[in-house]
Amino acid sequence: MRIAYVIDTHVQADHRSGGRRLAAETGASYALHASAQVSFAFMPLHDEQDLDLGNVSIRILHTPGHTPESVCLLVTDKTRGPEPWFLLTGDTLFVGAVGRPDLPGRMQTSAEELYESLQSKLLHLPEMLEVYPAHFSGSACGAGMSGKPCTTLAFEQRFNPMLSLSKEEFVSTLITTLPPKPVETEETLRFNRGLA
């Protein structure tokens, strides 16, 4: 097997990404959503784009909110069947929580976009989908995250308190319950955008 793609679900603000280095060392394509504002070349990903990896396919879902360029990856194992198997949600949806909207600096707009991404993109997917977020309890990327590393859409629809709120309640709750920003956010963003 070889690594064909290295995909960052968004430009990270809480840690330095090793994505570009891994891609360079393996000859893989380094990919971000086409809207990512970085100073280096990358493979642009687009909403509803499919990446074929033989037995596996990945559908790109553009889910702005945590950051403008955030994506989720809907994975199908074609040897199991044609239905998607699991969803890699990055920092969009966590177990028991959702991503924080303030790191790119457009908190109100980002919170509104996150609500729309969750309601229009993710919650209409099959409820039996397994969900694997990028973080769990202990991360500064959201408030109220569970220590459980995975979930299902059905479980989140039933028990995630953020998913049953109106848009106004969602935005208000989200922006008033944020944990402190990660240390060195600006320096980390500069590094991950190729500016440092």
Keywords:
three-stranded parallel beta sheet; 196 residues; 25% helix; alpha/beta; globular; single chain; Metallo-beta-lactamase, Chain A; six-stranded mixed beta sheet
Determine the number of helices (DSSP H or I, runs of at least 4 residues): 5
> Which segments are poorly predicted (pLDDT under 50) over 5 or more consecutive residues?
none
Give the quaternary arrangement of the chains. single chain
Overall form: globular
In round numbers, the mean pLDDT is 92
Strand content: 15-25%
| Helix/strand order | EHEEEEEEEEHEEHHH
Report helical residue fraction. 25-40%
Structure description:
This protein has 196 residues and is α/β, with parallel strands linked by helices. The chain has a domain at 47-180: Metallo-beta-lactamase, Chain A. The chain is 25% helix and 22% strand. The protein contains five helices and eleven strands, in the order E-H-E-E-E-E-E-E-E-E-H-E-E-H-H-H. The chain has helices spanning 19-26, 107-122, 153-159, 167-176, 185-192, and strands at 5-7, 29-33, 43-45, 50-53, 56-62, 71-77, 86-90, 93-94, 97-98, 130-133, 151-152. The strands form three sheets. Strands 4-5-6-7-10-11 form a six-stranded mixed β-sheet. Helix 2 (107-122) packs across helix 4. The radius of gyration is 16 Å and the shape is globular. The model has no long low-confidence stretch (mean pLDDT 92).
Topology of helices and strands:
Elements: E1 5-7, H1 19-26, E2 29-33, E3 43-45, E4 50-53, E5 56-62, E6 71-77, E7 86-90, E8 93-94, E9 97-98, H2 107-122, E10 130-133, E11 151-152, H3 153-159, H4 167-176, H5 185-192
Helix pairs in contact: 2-4
